[in-house]
Write a structure and sequence with these properties.
The chain is of the alpha+beta class and about 90 residues long. It contains one helix and four strands; from the N terminus they run ββββα. The longest helix has about 30 residues.
Length: about 90
């Protein structure tokens, strides 16, 4: 498994209270655990064909595909503007 550290935080405060009846014995102690927030990049196991490099390489082109989808959606409006015709309002069909 491949992961990266996103943040180092501290957990909730835990209060430890010691008490002995009829002896006037009362003690408090607090503790907070250190925690790390991780982002999992790739998960691999026995028999896995993909490596962390392959997973990272696959992740980069997806962002390029997302950009091409947004440009394809803008193409009809751009063509209509070039031709001089006004595009139809987005709410009407």
């Amino acid at each position: 498994m491949t992961a990266r550290v996103v943040a180092a935080t501290r957990g909730p405060k835990i209060v430890v209270y010691k008490y002995k009846a009829k002896k006037r014995y009362r003690r408090t102690q607090g503790a907070r655990a250190e925690q790390s927030l991780l982002e999992v990049i790739a998960v691999s196991g026995p028999g896995s064909k993909r490596t962390a490099r392959a997973a990272k390489a696959d992740a980069e082109p997806k962002s390029a595909k997302a950009q091409s989808k947004t440009t394809k959606a803008a193409l009809p409006k751009a063509k209509a503007a070039e031709e001089g015709a006004e595009p139809a309002p987005e709410g009407s069909e």
